[in-house]
């Protein structure tokens, strides 16, 4: 028997999403198109200003664009990842 999946419903609020997850059998839905989401909760209270070669900045911007995020967030993610890594 062929495995059929239901399309994901449009959820217009957090309450609708919570209810959907609580009451639905998620194995009935195709979740393969989902992508991880990263939420930035901590307030930004400091700034960083640096000079770097234009070619590097353009490469960073291109990489961030390919990931669908602003380049400043991409730079922050790289810094956070490196700091979190064990040396």
UniProtKB/TrEMBL annotation:
One of its GO terms (biological process) is regulation of DNA-templated transcription. It holds the Pfam family CopG_antitoxin. InterPro entries: CopG_antitoxin, Ribbon_hlx_hlx. This is Uncharacterized protein. It comes from Pollutimonas subterranea.
